[in-house]
Amino acid sequence: MMLSIGAAAVLALALPVRSGPTESTVLSSFPAPASASYDYVVVGGGTAGLTIAARLAASGSSVAVVEAGGFYETDSSTISTVPGYAFSNPVLAPVEFFPPFPLLDWELVSQAQTGAANRKVHYAAGKTLGGGSAINTMAYHRATKRTHLRWADVAGHLSYTWDNMLPFFLKSAKLTPPDWLKRATPNATFTYDPTVFCTGLPICGPLQVSYAKWVDPTNTWFSVALEAIGMAQNLLGFNSGSLSGGAYTTETISPDAIRSSSESSYLAWALQNTQLKVYNRTLASKILFTSGKATGVSVSTGGAGYALTVAKEVILSAGTFHSPQLLMVSGIGPQAKLQSLDIPVISNLPGVGQNLQDPIFFSVQSGVKTPSLASELADPARQSTIQQQYDSSDAGPLSSAGGYIAFEKLPAASRQAFSPRTASLLAGLPADVPEIEYLAGSFAGTGNGVTTVGDLSAAVLNPFSRGSVTISSASITDAPVIDMGWLTDPADAEVAVAAFKRLRQAWAAPAISSVKVGPEIRPGLAVQSDADILVWIRENAIQIWHASATNAMGTNATAGAVVDWRAKVFGVSGLRVVDASILPFALPGHPQATIYALAEKIAQSILTGS
Ligand SMILES: Cc1cc2nc3c(=O)[nH]c(=O)nc-3n(C[C@H](O)[C@H](O)[C@H](O)COP(=O)(O)OP(=O)(O)OC[C@H]3O[C@@H](n4cnc5c(N)ncnc54)[C@H](O)[C@@H]3O)c2cc1C
Ligand SMILES: *[C@@H]1O[C@H](CO)[C@@H](O)[C@H](O)[C@H]1NC(C)=O
Ligand SMILES: *[C@@H]1O[C@H](CO)[C@@H](O)[C@H](O)[C@H]1NC(C)=O
Ligand SMILES: *[C@@H]1O[C@H](CO)[C@@H](O)[C@H](O)[C@H]1NC(C)=O
User: Fold this and answer.
1) Could you check whether the bond before residue 523 is cis, i.e. omega within 30 degrees of 0?
2) Residue 201, pLDDT above cutoff 90
3) Is residue 590 annotated as part of the catalytic site, yes or no?
4) Average pLDDT for residues 512-538, to the nearest whole number?
5) Burial 435-455 (b: 16+ CB within 10 A, else e)
6) Confidence band for 278, pLDDT divided at 50, 70 and 90
7) What share of the chain is helix, strand, coil (3-state, %, to 5)?
8) Structure confidence at residue 14 as a pLDDT band (50, 70, 90)
9) Apex CA 262: angle with CA 176 and CA 398, to 5°?
10) How many A from CA of 349 to the centre of ligand 4?
């Protein structure tokens, strides 16, 4: 049975999302680059930053956002706005030498990964209004109920339980029900739970969430293969606090098939309805303190430096890599590190930049004879039809960013080789937290009957390896030093090998033999023993761009916590951090839904003083 949301279509914060903020709204919002004072200054106009800035500005407070990048609609055009291009965005290249894209990306390159064949990888991070939400691949789903219980436990506050966080999920996003007519794929129907989305005025948030209006035919076969090895469709979908089985996921795509980011949603709304000021192409270099209280931020626009001071608070939302960097160059972090760079210590917090958790993923590829998003986009004969479908009806391959994913705890047969330590680490995770996510993907075909190179991936969701972010100088213009710590904990290696074998089991399912063409393409059947599989994974696994927890929330600063449950930084006043860096641990699956909700929660905490 298909559930529907009905009247939720008309909304208070409904926005013209096709083009994002207009030139005139932007220009009138850009203040002269000179010292000024606001109630709040938000550093980083990314996913969390624009959410919190919009809510604070809506309350009538004076608010400025400082963002190093510009507007992606004009800086990069269709690469970042059209969903079908999300996977071919050049910023995704996870290799040391990559095509530079300074208008969208910070161009960060990691330290050599000792657990991953000493590779250095380019780790894309959005340098644009919208931040990660402007370059991500748009999957939107929430964590599990027990993940939130674990969070409440670590944060020492019950406001993080599922029930207590649900209002902030509701407030941030508006769901458009599936368009079955445009999907036009009767073998890819599903059910979902409309009660976990906003259903009425006036609280439906500006972020647009929807189901793809085009179904990738190859994905329908991956759904069959994953079901055959134990992952039946989850009848509620992945927004109700359960992550098990498979589902077509919701995506941050507007009803007219444009990327919905924090910029096209929250910022566009705030520019029209509040006095929010946006300092775009403006770099924050330091948080300023007087007697342990944050009083403002040093910034520079086009090389000219000035200060923005605050009457109330500074909110740091520069993301997993840059928020710890900004804290450290401002005097908050591990004392010995700061002293070695002659940075005066304002708060000695050993946890700043530590605890980095970065899920990795890898795939097994085989040829298939079904078309796919990749094969359609690569076929010159299809270009004009596809473009026309998109332009005239917001549908077709360009309107979709893939979207079939599945979750599981590995079955008993896959766990037999686990060491006692690995088994016990995994047993310590909450009962409803999946260990592996599977993602259906594709590359263009190679001919000889291979229409599509089917790409089935597995992500190791709960890394026990720990990485770090640190600084090499006191200057914000030197890139942060990033070590993801990939596969340095043997438990992650064991889980990865088990997940790899599940990928091969899915490919071997008789249910998809009718569309499979030829032998496995990657890594190929020469890779067989557990030892060979692990070597291959160390050489080929990449990030899924979900790094988090580098300013972990908690209760004990000596033990590594950086912020408390209100997101206030320990040891100072007037400063909060609100972004993926304050997650206490890697969330299962994709984090953006939770980052929006977290920003809504802290905005309310600031405004109500609770
Ligand atoms: C390629 C990619 C694909 C992803 N796919 C998905 C997905 O499908 N689903 C999902 O849920 N999640 C996905 N993610 C993860 C998700 O998008 C991020 O976790 C999330 O956007 C992080 O939000 P944030 O607020 O912590 O930081 P960001 O959104 O990164 O915001 C930080 C902002 O601060 C700015 N900034 C940093 N330093 C300074 C400074 N010194 N001065 C001024 N401004 C500064 C940055 O330019 C940026 O705009 C993906 C991420 C990437 C990169
Ligand atoms: C589902 O239908 C589509 C479109 O007709 C087709 O291309 C695809 O092969 C089908 N998938 C399965 C699993 O039957
Ligand atoms: C901010 O964006 C506007 C509109 O794109 C642009 O005209 C302006 O120059 C930008 N500001 C800076 C400092 O680059
Ligand atoms: C905080 O952590 C430190 C270091 O682990 C520990 O010694 C101390 O007892 C903890 N304090 C509290 C109140 O738990």
Assistant:
1) yes
2) no
3) yes
4) 97
5) bbbbbbbbbbbeeeebbbbbb
6) very high
7) 35, 25, 45
8) very low
9) 55
10) 13
Contact 176, 208 (CB under 8 A): yes
Q: Which of 375, 510, 504, 549 is nearest to 447 (CA)?
A: 375
Helix (H) / strand (E) element for 41: namely: strand 36-43
Alpha carbons 401 and 261: distance in angstroms, whole number: 14
Token pair recorded at residue 281: 């192409």
Q: Name the residue of 80, 136, 315, 461 whose CB sits within 8 Å of the most ligand 1 atoms, as the mutation to test its pocket.
A: 136
Q: Which two structure tokens, joined as six digits, stand for 199?
A: 């259903």
Residue 466 Cα to ligand 4 midpoint, Å, equals 20
327 Cα to the center of ligand 3, angstroms: 27
Q: Is 546 annotated as a binding residue?
A: yes
Ligand 3 pocket check: which of 26, 65, 283, 306 to mutate, most ligand atoms within 8 Å of Cβ? Answer: 26
CB atoms within 10 A of CB 108: 18
Q: Where are the alpha helices (DSSP H) in 334-489?
A: 335-340, 373-378, 383-393, 420-427
Residue 442 DSSP SS3: strand
Measured from the CB, is residue 30 less than 6 Å from ligand 3? yes
Q: Which residue has the tokens 């400082």?
A: 66
Domains of the chain: 7-22+36-608 (3.50.50.60)
